[in-house]
Amino acid sequence: MNILAFSASSSRHSINRDLVHYAARVLKSDIVPDAKFSYLDLNDFEMPIYSIDREREQGIPTAAHEFYSFIGAADAVLVSFAEHNGYVTSAWKNIHDWMSRINSKVWQGKPMVVLCATPGKRAGAGVLGILESQLPFFGGKVIGIFGIGSWDSAWNQVDQKLVQENDEANLLAALRQLGR
Ligand SMILES: Cc1cc2nc3c(=O)[nH]c(=O)nc-3n(C[C@H](O)[C@H](O)[C@H](O)COP(=O)(O)O)c2cc1C
Q1: 34 CA distance to ligand 1 centroid (A)?
Q2: Are 62 and 98 in contact (CB under 8 A)?
Q3: The pLDDT of residue 142
Q4: What spacing in Å lies between the alpha carbon of 58 and ligand 1's midpoint?
Q5: pLDDT digits (tens, 9 = 90+) for 75-117
Q6: Could you give phi then psi for residue 114, rounded to 5 degrees?
Q7: Domains of the chain with bracketed CATH
Q8: Of 46, 49, 106, which Cα lies nearest the Cα of 77?
Q9: Which atom of ligand 1 lies closest to the CA of 19?
Q10: DSSP state at residue 139
Q11: How many angstroms separate the CA atoms of 36 and 45, rounded?
């Protein structure tokens, strides 16, 4: 199974990248042993801010086509969304907007596990709630959701793993459908 994995953040120190890499390790060791991961970094897909004028004048950037093709080539998507002001980051919104001009079904019917890590207590409840209702409209088949808050105490930076067993169990539950 080929899984596209990324953090929807442009931060070089993204906690969502830590979470997505950890989830990939758990998925491979406990659920889908033959999983192969392609990891993307949003910084490799920087594009001008979307505008209809730019699209008319310059067309859709190659990077948007490339990202869209990565989704198309995957069997499933594992993505951890950083929450900015209750929604996704500008970096992700821009890539998404450009890709939506190729096809509004950006996720191309792929099964998705959607994650979110936040330093605050709400565990991305805002962005995850919106995404849960929006992703199907954009062609995403959401099969698992996991949000984790209070990241500094929930994450063991030395061992690169979640501290609490019940957090790990909830992550496993979100990933489980990928093995079915
Ligand atoms: C502009 C901005 C807005 C933010 N808004 C939220 C928010 O709405 N909810 C939240 O829990 N954290 C918010 N944060 C804190 C982020 O969750 C935190 O920076 C986190 O590390 C982002 O994930 P990342 O490290 O993967 O980029 C915000 C941070 C910034 C810079």
Answers
A1: 33
A2: no
A3: 98
A4: 32
A5: 999 999 999 999 999 999 999 999 999 999 999 999 999 999 9
A6: -110, 125
A7: 2-179 (3.40.50.360)
A8: 106
A9: 26
A10: T
A11: 22
